Amino acid sequence: MKALFSQPLHVVNAGLRGFADNITSAGGTVTNLDWQPPAGADAALGWQLANLLRDPRIEEANRTAYARYLAAQPRLFDVILARDAMPGLGGGQRRILHSGPPIAWADMCGPQQGAIAGAIVYEGWADTIEAAEALAASDAVAFDPCHHHSAVGPMAGIISPSMPVWVVEDGETGKYAFSNLNEGLGKVLRFGANSPEVIDRLRWLSGEFFAVMQAAVRGLEDRNLKPLMAQALHMGDEVHNRNAAASCLMFKRLVLSLGRLELDRAMVNRALAFVAANDHFFLNISMAASKVMMDAAHGEPHSSLVTVMARNGVNFGIRLSGTGEMWFQAPANPVNGLYFPGYSIADAAADLGDSAITETAGLGGFAMAASPAIVQFVGGTPADAVANSRRMLNITLGANPAFTLPALNFGGTPAGIDARAVLDTGILPVINTGIAHRKAGVGQIGAGITTAPLECFAGAVAALAGTLEAAP
Amino acid sequence: MKALFSQPLHVVNAGLRGFADNITSAGGTVTNLDWQPPAGADAALGWQLANLLRDPRIEEANRTAYARYLAAQPRLFDVILARDAMPGLGGGQRRILHSGPPIAWADMCGPQQGAIAGAIVYEGWADTIEAAEALAASDAVAFDPCHHHSAVGPMAGIISPSMPVWVVEDGETGKYAFSNLNEGLGKVLRFGANSPEVIDRLRWLSGEFFAVMQAAVRGLEDRNLKPLMAQALHMGDEVHNRNAAASCLMFKRLVLSLGRLELDRAMVNRALAFVAANDHFFLNISMAASKVMMDAAHGEPHSSLVTVMARNGVNFGIRLSGTGEMWFQAPANPVNGLYFPGYSIADAAADLGDSAITETAGLGGFAMAASPAIVQFVGGTPADAVANSRRMLNITLGANPAFTLPALNFGGTPAGIDARAVLDTGILPVINTGIAHRKAGVGQIGAGITTAPLECFAGAVAALAGTLEAAP
Fold first, then answer.
1. Do B164 and B201 touch, CB atoms closer than 8 A?
2. B44-69+297-470: CATH, from 3.20.20.210, 3.90.950.10, 3.90.1700.10, 3.40.50.2000
3. In which element (H, E) is residue A415 found?
4. Is the ipTM of this complex over 0.95?
5. Nearest residue in chain B measured CA to CA from A279
6. Ordered DSSP codes for A87-106
7. B227 contacts in chain A (CB < 8 Å)
8. Are A376 and B260 in contact (CB < 8 Å)?
9. Helices within B180-314 (DSSP H only)
10. pLDDT tens-digit map of A266-291
11. What is the pLDDT of residue B1?
12. Backbone phi, then psi, for B235, in 5-degree steps?
């Protein structure tokens, strides 16, 4: 102790900055760790959290849920029309699915309204965008989150009855998940564009392209998606905002399947040219695969594992494995990113889309270490990309050995967000995302990185505490 | 100075370790930098090198040669038979090309002899491997390095008249380079295997596969190889020992081209299935592209730029831009690597093949930072991969802005080896490579990392000094 007081002090402060003020004013050197009070400094919630952090029921439930996530075996099963895939869209019902938690037409953000208006015209329920908007504002069309129908959609996330959807099956649980087809970049429905060229492309996608893809998928020799996604992680993808490798690998499988079939060559060539030109082709498949992996983990009583993160451009919503169908919502964050020339954050819609299901499954922003080149698309440096993956290990139940990250010395990708850990550490799940213009009809204006709001996790943990108190 | 002597010393020693012995024995702490005398401690050569390092004629020549390397625009031009591509293989001549510097049949390593015997059977010049070996040992077959015919071949590097070769054109200089077709992994001619299945595969490659590839290449919309290779570097390839992404990207181009042609579907499907199953498909194209880039830089008087590194399994040979057709040779190093089960370094042939042309062009081992996953194939850690690329910057004339490495914050790949810098620093060019069994007929037994021997660079620098003394 004597030696301690006789030599110059360098103090590391792990706590409130105020703790170190006396040392600083006495001439000592202090390094403040990046610390903040748990539970967003809400004392009551903090005590609740402290109890939950040592609750053996949660630990046990999380082990079970996480093991189910790890065991899932997503397989590309089919491509069919949404109305044949989901009972909620069948039988002539006028229902349209959207991304994120539930929201009424009047409250939706511009791109989601724009995309819905486009989908109504595409379905033939109205002839013009104006008429479609009027119809949407009436009670004649129902709206539901994709997640209420085992589905996910990027950005606006619009799925209407006549759209084809990928069907991904979990070979382990037999559950299915669905996602729409990727339209490419530029003026596309998912970013809120709805001009005639957008509608025409949707019609081609549900016509000729659908026919070719359905035949190709039904003839696939290898339907397993996890090995393909794992390989893509070794080829610079994080399979959310960068899908160049995964799309190329899937292209290879589709070509080999189509080679075994007797289809019209011109049709096949147009379909393959479309796939070859779209480095985001695999995104929607990656999302459906992530959805079945998280659905496998969903529904374990008491589990604090996050099984859904989704945004509707107004609110960010999450679900926990242990709290069933409840949504925990907070206003969606703006997206810090790279904007196309002529646009800035002032033009941007808030964080939007179901694609954060990839991060929920340990991919996307969580797997950024796999994808140093992603920073050319979403901003930052390759070192940031590695740091993001490392940081996420603080809030996840483990690392997925099926998805290894070369830059982390082949450690698994951080996976299985524990809502308690987010609330305890204040470390927010990082999400790579596209950026839509806030007005309907414009489209994509950039891409970037954002985070899930802490309030969602505070709400989820409080609700989980409630179910535990109610439990015997 | 007083303060210096009164406080504990920590000394960094940049020089011979002996310099620091007194400090150590007096109780000081010494960190020895990893230093060794220049020119391999050969005093006479060291003085010669010192003069060359400040010779403005070399600086000027290197600038010119390096600019030509950077300006090269390799394009995939055609696939034709070797006898139609290279005059030295035409007109019924019985000549076979091999990798590395010149070598007589009797001196060749096992895999090269095995591959040549296989090629003789393939050509129909002998009916059995034994008869082929007897023919090879007579004067009835001529042997030449691939590099003497603007060609490169991986491992044994065998090119015989009836084999198809890729033709890569430099859009800038109009020069051509050639490489044979990749046979896949396992029992293949380039690793010295020559069983009937190997010969049968070669016959299929020069028959049906050749016909499909020629049609596909002639119909390509995009022939540019540099952007494809640059993209592959962002997808985890170093385009020498890892070509998974580049092969997939080339597959995409070939499929789109074949879609526009009327060819027999069954033929096309077999050819595409072969390409799709071979992640090394692009290797030989990468080598031919590297060869035209280096040939563009070759022949600049006084330049110390290395334009060829090649190994015949006995000797490692290099060429400089400024010393014309001369080879500078030394015994090839063994390869430190990962061996297939049942094999060890005792079974291995020495470093073999022309594929080090990729490293000569700044790819392969020089671009390892692009390819952390390569260490699963060649050994080491992802951190080693990044360190290798960084270290190579010490011996290259620059970094190629056309080939950027995400892990180095999108810095260019180190490119343009300066033989003077290798001799001055003792830092040896790092090479990723496959490992062949030392006996004929066996095939690949592993993959690993090796280096070019210092003696090659010593010889080259001495010869360059001679040309400078002779110059006016």
1. no
2. 3.90.1700.10
3. strand A411-417
4. no
5. B249
6. GGG-TT--EEEESSS---GG
7. none
8. no
9. 196-204, 210-218, 226-233, 244-259, 265-276, 283-297
10. 999 999 999 999 999 999 999 999 99
11. 61
12. -125, 30
Say if CB A195 and CB A155 are below 8 A apart: no
Burial bucket for residue B337 (CB in 10 Å: 0-12, 13-18, 19+): buried
Contact between B236 and A245 using a beta-carbon 8 Å cutoff: yes
* Cα separations in angstroms, A129 against A116, A132, A199, A201, A434: 9, 5, 11, 16, 24
CA distances from residue A98 to A143, A174, A192, B118 in whole angstroms, order as listed: 7, 25, 12, 63
- Which residue of chain B has the CA closest to A251? B252
Domain spans, chain A: 2-34, 44-64+296-470, 78-287
Give exposure, B350-387, as e/b (b: 16+ Cβ within 10 Å): bbbbbbbbbbbbbbbbbbbbbbbbbbbbbbbebebbbe
* Superfamily for domain range B79-287: Enterococcus faecalis V583 domain (3.90.1710.10)
* Cβ-defined contact of B259 to A248 (cutoff 8 Å): no
Q: Which fold has domain A78-287?
A: Enterococcus faecalis V583 fold (3.90.1710)
Q: Within a 13 Å sphere around the CA of B338, how many CA atoms are in the beta-carbon half?
A: 10
What is d(CA B267, CA B262) in angstroms, rounded to the nearest whole number? 11
Q: Residues with Cβ < 8 Å from B56, sequence gap 6 or more? A: none
pTM reported for the whole predicted model: 0.93
Cβ(A228)–Cβ(A238) under 8 Å?
no
Of A248, A272, A373, the CB nearest to B234: A373
Regarding beta strands B352-353 and B336-339, do their DSSP bridges make them parallel or antiparallel, or are they unpaired? unpaired
DSSP B209: I
Q: Give residue for tokens 């880039």.
A: B293
End-to-end, the C-alpha distance of chain A in Å comes to 51
pLDDT per position as a tens digit, B413-431: 999 999 999 999 999 999 9
- How many whole angstroms separate alpha carbon A372 and alpha carbon A376? 8
Give the angle subtended at the CA of B334 by the CAs of B332 and B340, to the nearest 5°: 135
pLDDT digits (tens, 9 = 90+) for B124-133: 999 999 999 9
Class of domain A44-64+296-470: alpha beta
Question: Alpha-carbon distance A355 to A364, whole Å?
Answer: 9
Q: Over the stretch A414-456, which tens digit does the pLDDT of each residue have? A: 999 999 999 999 999 999 998 989 988 888 899 999 999 999 9
